[in-house]
Amino acid sequence: MLKRLDTLEVATFDLSDAASIYEKNFGFQVKREGDAATVKVGGAEIKLRTGEVAAAAMTANGESMMGLWLEADDVDRVAAALKKAGIDAGVPGRDADRRVLTIDPKHANQVPLFIFDRKA
């Protein structure tokens, strides 16, 4: 049902410092755009975020992961499978060109988890 890891979002206070860690320590090329920087890792991305987008996450947890995005073929099938496992994922919402299930972190080892598909 789940196809791949799409994006790991990380909240940071200092975008330049966080980006330089990925560049200097790991040799990644980092693309900076406004309040975000993107590191491509295979077919996935690590998205470093700062500013208003990341403020709430950092207030609660400091610098940390703020979202794990997984792509699925069909979020309705994922929601049905989760419901069978005793987890009510609710109804998919919309985010740009995606349908998104927002999974309560209590069901994902305290990780904000988003499962999406690209169906209209």
Mean pLDDT: 90
Please estimate the helix content.
25-40%
Strand share of the residues? 35-45%
> Helix and strand succession?
EHEEEHEHEEE
Number of strands: 8
**CA gyration radius, whole angstroms:** 15 Å
List the total number of helices: 3
Topology:
Blueprint: E1 2-11, H1 15-26, E2 30-33, E3 36-41, E4 44-49, H2 52-61, E5 64-72, H3 75-84, E6 93-95, E7 98-103, E8 113-117
Parallel strand pairs: 1-4, 5-8
Antiparallel strand pairs: 1-5, 2-3, 3-4, 6-7, 7-8
Report what the structure shows.
Helices cover 27% and strands 41% of the residues. A hairpin with a 2-residue loop joins strand 3 and strand 4 (44-49). By secondary structure, it is an alpha+beta fold. The longest helix has 12 residues, at 15-26. It has a single domain, classed as 2,3-Dihydroxybiphenyl 1,2-Dioxygenase, domain 1 (Roll), CATH 3.10.180.10. The model has no long low-confidence stretch (mean pLDDT 90). The radius of gyration is 15 Å and the shape is globular. The protein has helices at 15-26, 52-61, 75-84; strands at residues 2-11, 30-33, 36-41, 44-49, 64-72, 93-95, 98-103, 113-117. It has an 8-stranded mixed β-sheet with strand order 2-3-4-1-5-8-7-6.
